[in-house]
TrEMBL record:
Gene3D superfamilies: Glutaredoxin. It comes from the Bacteria. Coiled coil: none annotated. Pfam families: Thioredoxin. SUPFAM superfamilies: Thioredoxin-like. This is Thioredoxin. Residues 8-98 form the Thioredoxin domain. It comes from Acidithiobacillus ferrianus. CDD domains: TRX_family (cd02947). InterPro entries: Thioredoxin-like_sf (IPR036249), Thioredoxin_domain (IPR013766).
Length: 111
C-alpha cells in the first residue's frame, strides 16, 4: 500500500495502468486500521491491483473533491479513469467478489 497526496495526484493517476483502489483514511479511525490490514493483505495477492492511501486529515482538498464524509472510503480506478465508489464489508472475499462484478463496467462520472 502506498501513501499518496493531492500534489501531482491526477498526473500520476493518468499514467497508471491497472486497477487502483483509492483508500481515504485517518489516523484516529478504528475501522480504517481494520481496512488498512485487509487491503495490504489483499493487494499482496493481486498483481493487477494497487492500493493508494490518502490521509483525509492532511489532504483535505482531494478528500473534499471526492465528497468523502465518512471514513474509511474506497474508490475504484481502472487505467487512470474513475470507475466508481465502493461500499463493501471489510472481508477479503466480499471485496474480491465486488471487484470482479464492477471492474469491467464502464467508467462513471466523478462525484
Amino acid at each position: 500500500m502506498e501513501t499518496v497526496s493531492e500534489l501531482g495526484f491526477w498526473q500520476r493517476m493518468a499514467g497508471t495502468q491497472g486497477l487502483i483502489l483509492l483508500f481515504f483514511t485517518s489516523a484516529g479511525c478504528h475501522s480504517c486500521r481494520i481496512w488498512r490490514r485487509l487491503l495490504a493483505d489483499y493487494e499482496a495477492t493481486r498483481e493487477d491491483l494497487q492500493v493508494w492511501e490518502v490521509d483525509a486529515g492532511i489532504d483535505m482538498g482531494i478528500t473534499q473533491e471526492f465528497g468523502v464524509y465518512h471514513l474509511p472510503a474506497l474508490f475504484l480506478f481502472r487505467d487512470g479513469r474513475y470507475q466508481r465508489p465502493l461500499q463493501v464489508e471489510a472481508r477479503a472475499h466480499a471485496l474480491h467478489r465486488l471487484l470482479a462484478d464492477v471492474a469491467h463496467l464502464p467508467p462513471e462520472e466523478m462525484p
